[in-house]
Amino acid sequence: MRVFKIVFFALILSFATQNVSAQPIRFKTSSVSFTDKKDNGDWNEWSEFVEANVLISVDPKKDLIIVNSSEVQSFKIKAYGEIQDTDEVNIVPFECVDTMFSKCTILIITKKKENNRMQFYINYNEVKFVYNIYNVK
Q: Which of 44, 56, 67, 78 has its CA 20 to 30 A from that of 32?
């Protein structure tokens, strides 16, 4: 019985000290659109989507989001927002700064009633980008 207790304690201790690390999540894009603000503060219409074959990595361990477009965009995650999950949509928000220290909000949105269509938004004060995305396996 004493050996069983020692083995059990050692097993519990090994689980407690295991190194848990979050793996980066990768997405591929199929297309991109953008909009910008008018002089009166309203937003223009979204542009037509154009083909975009870009890799996006979200690395929670490094608090980093990388968009590997023709000009690589790097975003430091400053805060993880509260996930919104309804019957229609799942929204995962991130408060970020880019390499020029401009603040932005990044959203990963899954539209459940549209066959779980996923979009990746980069929202600045004056311009917004949206990529249609899918998971990379």
A: 78
Which of 116, 117, 97, 120 lies closest to 108 in space, CA to CA?
120
The Cα–Cα gap between 25 and 89 comes to: 19
Residue 79 contacts residue 96 (beta carbons within 8 Å): no
Cβ atoms of residues 93 and 87 within 8 Å: no
Q: 83 is written with which tokens?
A: 């996930």
Q: Using one digit for the tens of pLDDT, what is the confidence trace for 19-73?
A: 445 689 999 999 999 999 999 999 999 999 999 999 999 999 999 999 998 899 9
Q: Which of 93, 90, 94 is nearest to 75 (CA)?
A: 94
Q: Give CA–CA dist 130/122, Å, rounded.
A: 6
